[in-house]
Structures are given as structure tokens and as C-alpha cells.
Amino acid sequence: MNKTISILGCGWLGLPLAISLTKKGYNLKGSNTTDRNSKIFKNHNIKPYIVNIGTYNDITDFLTANVLIIAITNKNSTDFNRLIANIEKSTIENVIFISSTSVYPNTNDVVTETNPTQNTPLAEIENLFRTNTNFNTTIVRFAGLFGYNRKPGNFIKPDKQIENPEGFINLIHQDDCINIIEKIITTNCWNETLNACADSHPKRKEFYTKEVLKLRNEKPKVNENSLNEYKIVSNEKLKKLLQYEFKVNNLMNCND
Question: If you count Cβ atoms within 10 Å of the first and of the last residue's Cβ in the chain, which end, N or C, has fewer?
Fold first, then answer.
């Protein structure tokens, strides 16, 4: 297995993903906008690059790979049009674009990949990749990210209230994010749009009260007058297509 994978954006998700992929025998190239992770990269046989798609620099060598995973927060369509033009001239055959379930509006109902999205920059960027026929793209819409140093209890700051307390949670653990991306690569699951979140959807008040108590030993305040708008993100397509079973599934029993 000599497939080369480039990861654009080696932060909270991209860096542990890169390390995991190297352990499975892939050749890895990783980027940040600075050299802050270069020592970690070298320790794990990841070739380091400094890439900022908002400024022009030659990324030909970085894009000399089979698969490109895009895990950055930039939402500027001009920057992505420039990136796509570079991908078209490269050896990249397949792209995994990390998106978010935030593209869906709150419907107070279950949403699937067939639901309409909001008119947002992220949805627009998704479409730039989806309609490009020069390479294959799978779009993964991750729910709220948590795990390890990203504690859900910290999502509710001490001076803030829990909004929409009767609404429902959509979250996914870092381990499942990594496992799902690896499964997409190993099964050649391309040209798909997939929702990725845990099966369980506890109510916000119940879940965040539990998580805040774990960190601060105090109950958070609750805005009982908020509108309780929500969506419940379905992961059924992903589980069926990838034959995937979530590692961290029951959010009320999660100890991370």
C-alpha cells in the first residue's frame, strides 16, 4: 500500500487522522498555515507543508498525491475556486471535503442528506466540489465535534445559559471521525454526501447539565424561555453505505 494522502489542515482532527493513516501504511503529507506542527509531523513520518489557500503559494508538491482531505475552516469561495483549479492540474483523484451539519436549518424534525441546505458559504463551497467532474469528491457533514481535549462541558461557558433546552444534540467523537474517513478511503466510497453523527440524540438540557457537572461541579443555567429549535441528524445512509458501527454511540454514557 503506497497510496499518498495529503491532508489540508492538520489541526484538532487532521493531525490525529494523519498519524492514524501513517500507522496503516499510507504515505502522508500534512499542512498547516504555520510550521507549528512540523516537529510532530517529522516524528510520525508526515511530510510537512505550509499552505494557506487565502494567499498564493506553489502547492504543486503538496497536491502530488492520490487523495486530498480538506479539513480547514476557511469559508471563502474565491479561495476554494483557486484551490480547485490547482487540484485539477494535480495528480489528485479523490477528495474528502469535511463539512458540517450546520448547513441544515433547524426543522424540529429529522434531517437526511436529501434535505435542502441553508444558503451559506459552506453550502456553496460544498457545491463547488460536488459539481466538479475532474476528480471525485465525497462530502462528510460532521455533527458537533468532541473528544479528548475538546470537552462538551466547555461548550457552555460559566456565564452562559443552555439555549434550546428541549432541543436535541447532534455530536460525533473524534475517534469516529477518523474511523469514518479511513473507511471512505478503504472502500472507495466516492461522489457521496454523508451525515456523520452518533446514533443517540439526548436533549440539550440533560446532556449539557451532565457534561458541565463533570468539569465544574455546578449546574449550568438554563434559558427555559428559548424557542427550542433543533434538528435531529440522521446517520442511516452512512451506516448502510459504509457498514459502519459507531465507537462512541450513546452520548449519555460517554466518559470522554
Answer: N
Burial class of residue 47, CB neighbours in 10 A (0-12, 13-18, 19+): middle
Q: 69 forms bridges with which residues in the sheet? A: 7, 96
Q: What residue type is 150 in one-letter code?
A: R
Which pLDDT does position 255 carry in this prediction? 77
Q: How far apart are CA 31 and CA 14, in angstroms?
A: 9
Taking residue 28's Cβ as centre, other Cβ atoms within 10 Å add up to: 23
Vertex 112: Cα angle to 179 and 204 (nearest 5): 80
Domains along the chain? 4-148+173-199+232-248 (3.40.50.720)
Reading the block at residue 130, the C-alpha cell is 460536488
Torsion on CA atoms 53, 58, 60, 66, rounded to nearest 10: -20
Residue 53 has pLDDT above 70, yes or no: yes
| Set of cell numbers at residue 241 | 453505505
Residues in the chain: 256
Residue 83 backbone class (left: φ over 0; alpha: ψ -120 to 50; beta: rest): alpha
Question: How does DSSP classify residue 20?
Answer: H
* pLDDT tens readout for residues 162-215: 999 999 999 999 999 999 999 999 999 999 999 999 999 999 999 999 999 999
Q: Which residues of 136-172 are buried (b: 16+ CB within 10 A; e: fewer)?
A: bbbbbbbbbbbbeeeebbebbeeeeebbbbebbbbbb
CA dihedral 183, 188, 191, 192 (to 10 degrees): -30
Residue with C-alpha cell 466510497? Answer: 189
Rounded-to-integer distance, Cα 231 and Cα 50, Å: 37
